[in-house]
Structure formats: C-alpha cells, structure tokens
Design brief:
Layout (H helix, E strand, L loop, with lengths): L14 H23 L1 H28 L44 E3 L8 E4 L15 E2 L4
Antiparallel strand pairs: 1-2, 2-3
C-alpha cells in the first residue's frame, strides 16, 4: 500500500457542498421564474401579430391575382381552397396562398371581414378570452392596430 496517494480520499461532494448548490439553484429559480411567468401572454400577443401580417400578405397576393379580396362569406378559407360564389377568383393559384389556415395562439380562428370598417378588410383575433375588448392576454389583436 505504499503506492497509494492521499489525493484519492476526497472523490465525492460533501453534504454541505450539495446543499449550497441546491440553495443557489433555488434562489435563481425564485428570481427568474416570476419574471418569465408574465411573458407567456406577451409572447402570444406577438405571435398573433405575426400571424396577422402573414395572412394579410397572403390576402394581398390573392388580390393581385384575382383583382379583389375574398368576400366575408368566402373567408380566409379562400387562401387554401379555390372559393366559390361572388366575387369569382378567375386566376386562383392552384397551390393556394397559405399551406393551411393558422389558428390564433389561443386555438381560435382569426376573424376576417371584407370590406372592412377602415380598410379593404378587417383581420383580427379576440385574444385569450375570445370576446371583444379586454386587456393583457385577453386584449384583441387587430391588423389595423399593428
């Protein structure tokens, strides 16, 4: 046993060292988690705004090729399937203008009204509560507000 060195004595962590690490992790979690909890609603609002811009771009492409926006009755579905009814879509792109219709971040359909109250069309989501108005995560997100 003459060849053993004394450095092999301390191979593991002591209970105090482990407890210090756990306390540090707990303090960090207590500081970070509350700040992140309020950001989920903000992230959904930003995602909805991004979706509205993408849908509006697809609607503009539809109009460029077909000379008019889809009617309210034809709806956003006209961006993924050739619409029937009035106004006709004589140059509808066989590949569509969107791959699929997105849902808003709360799982609801985006609302489309043509003609719109201020523009050629209104495009919006009613937020987290699914009702008009609201604040915070329940706030409506409208293309005209972006």
């Amino acid at each position: 046993m003459y060849g053993r060195s004394q450095s092999n004595k301390h191979l593991g962590f002591t209970l105090i060292e482990i407890m210090i690490v756990v306390v540090i992790l707990g303090v960090l979690a207590a500081l970070v988690v509350p700040n992140m909890m309020g950001k989920a609603g903000d992230a959904r609002q930003v995602a909805a705004a991004s979706d509205l811009r993408a849908i509006a771009n697809a609607l503009d492409m539809y109009r460029l090729e077909n000379f008019t926006y889809p009617s309210t009755d034809q709806g956003l579905k006209a961006l993924v399937e050739k619409p029937s009814g009035y106004p006709p879509a004589p140059h509808w792109n066989p590949n569509g203008y969107l791959r699929k219709l997105p849902k808003d971040p709360w799982g609801n359909d985006y609302l489309y009204i043509s003609p719109g109250t201020e523009n050629d069309f209104d495009l919006l989501t009613l937020g987290g509560d699914g009702r008009s108005g609201g604040s915070g995560e329940a706030k409506d997100v409208s293309l005209s507000d972006l």
